[in-house]
Design goal:
The protein is of the alpha/beta class. The protein is built from 10 helices and 27 strands.
Length: about 500
């Protein structure tokens, strides 16, 4: 990722040049019908990246409980409901501080130390993973969180921000002098694939963590990965990406990992992802089992077009990274709901659950001191989604961009998340009459509420909402998210 300003929308949102419906910010009342026939897919889950926070605090197992279970956890001076994420992305590092044959890593003057992720292949002397060229004790802190998350049932993706420093043309894992230039040495295309494939094998055999996918790139066609950057990064033109992908498949297969899927290419925006996907040859597309995209285009971009082209090719789809600088959490809610309505990914990932910037974080932290600071608004808003829309649920299109629904067909439970992103209260009626089975009139439903007002509700339980005539009616305060759990519902 790279910090940037996100586009936002008020009242309407741009998508593929069209306007899409939101619950009107000024309307006093709205009725939304939830129809099980409008289901669009089975939810795979929620996730986050382990870089960079787990490089600092990855040995704190209470954080594994907080982010990767539904338990109540004491953190940042309070009791918090666990977010229940079931996916995580392990960042294989690009840094080492050794000197080999007179050469060593070049470090960006703007790189913070906790964003330098220790890598395992420290020099080019040997491809033998048992030789002194490899150090499998590296990155112990992030690996500790990877293992702890795996022990809690989390599925793990391997991803790279940059090849090892010595594979880079300038030996700088932050990028080239010109951020638009490729920085992987041509003679190391295969070696980069060897590094990823061998890390995947060692994770399975040495640490007991089988990855569910491997991603070689991170926002790779972007032009901001420069030698003076603030994090690891590397530009890859599409043709180089495709060469690396071919090597990666070969190297995975050679290590008994023929069933390990490849994902690509984690572009920064929906536009960039669509452009890169269209640039791939048929053979290259055949190597990719899932398309990953980042959500840094905010409320803009061709979400639906990207979705349609990826699905037409028979591929899975993740929003593998989202973050923004809006500390109210409202931009996150808006864009998450746009993703669920228009992009319709199999899974959705928040970038950094811990961040030094309060506006970007769910919980802010001090990376130098290694301690949590304060729970942020995004934590509570995110809990409204992650704790209720669970893996295996069938996602349902509610017809508007401010309401999402999911049906647990095994437990006969319907979850509806509704947001009022306007400045005034709004009456909302949810019409559930299209479902074949509903609880009796007068049945009370579960309700959790978060709003952004000072001293407002923070994932608070609310009693008294009851079904009447197959409908639920509530008044949503300004800048709020309501999550309904309705038991006894079947299509």
């Amino acid at each position: 990722m790279k910090r940037r300003t996100l586009l936002t929308a008020t009242g309407t949102a741009a998508a593929s040049g069209l306007l899409v419906p939101l619950l009107p910010a000024t309307a006093r009342a709205a009725t939304v019908a939830i129809d099980p026939d409008d289901a669009w897919g089975v939810w795979e889950g929620w996730g986050t990246s382990l870089a960079w926070w787990a490089n600092v605090m990855g040995d704190d197992e209470s954080l594994a409980d907080l982010f990767f279970t539904l338990r109540t956890v004491s953190a940042a001076g309070t009791q918090l409901p666990g977010l229940g994420m079931n996916l995580a992305r392990y960042n294989v590092g690009a840094c080492s501080w050794n000197t080999y044959q007179g050469e060593s890593m070049v470090v960006s003057p703007n790189m913070q130390s906790f964003k330098q992720i220790p890598g395992f292949w420290t020099d080019w002397g040997s491809e033998d993973p048992n030789s002194s060229s490899w150090d499998w004790s590296a990155d112990a802190t992030q690996r500790a969180m990877m293992v702890a998350a795996h022990e809690r049932g989390v599925a793990m993706e391997l991803f790279s921000n940059s090849p090892m420093w010595w594979m880079c043309l300038n030996h700088n894992p932050a990028g080239a002098a010109n951020g638009a230039d490729n920085n992987l040495q041509p003679w190391n295309y295969r070696q980069f694939a060897v590094y990823l494939a061998e890390t995947a094998r060692q994770a399975r055999d040495r640490w007991g963590v089988p990855f569910v996918s491997v991603e070689a790139f991170n926002e790779s066609t972007s032009n901001y990965w420069s030698a003076t950057g603030r994090q690891e990064g590397c530009h890859f033109d599409s043709d180089i990406q495709q060469q690396v992908l071919a090597h990666l498949r070969t190297e995975l297969d050679a290590r008994g990992l023929s069933d390990l899927p490849i994902a690509a290419s984690d572009e920064t925006s929906y536009d960039a992802a669509l452009s890169t996907w269209r640039s791939y040859s048929s053979a290259s597309k055949g190597l990719v089992e899932r398309v990953n995209v980042h959500g840094y285009q905010g409320s803009s971009g061709p979400r639906s077009t990207l979705r349609d082209e990826v699905r037409a090719a028979g591929k899975r789809l993740w929003n593998s990274e989202y973050g923004d600088s809006d500390g109210t959490g409202l931009s996150m809610v808006r864009n998450l709901m746009l993703d669920l309505r228009q992009l319709r990914p199999d899974a959705w990932h928040f970038w950094q659950v811990l961040d030094e910037s309060p506006n970007w974080a769910t919980i802010s932290f001090d990376p130098a001191a290694g301690r949590l600071l304060a729970v942020q608004q995004k934590y509570w808003f995110l809990a409204q989604f992650t704790r209720h829309i669970r893996p295996g649920m069938r996602m349902i299109d509610a017809g508007v961009d401010n309401v999402v629904a999911a049906l647990d067909e095994n437990a006969d439970r319907l979850v509806v998340v509704a947001a009022n992103l306007g400045s005034g209260a709004q009456d909302l009626t949810l019409d559930l009459s299209a479902f074949g089975t509903l609880p009796a009139d007068g049945t009370e439903v579960g309700l959790r509420v978060t709003d952004s007002a000072s001293g407002g509700a923070r994932y608070a339980a609310r009693a008294g909402t009851r079904l009447s005539g197959g409908r639920l009616t509530v008044s949503l305060p300004a800048s709020s998210v309501y999550t309904f759990d309705v038991n006894g519902v079947a299509a």
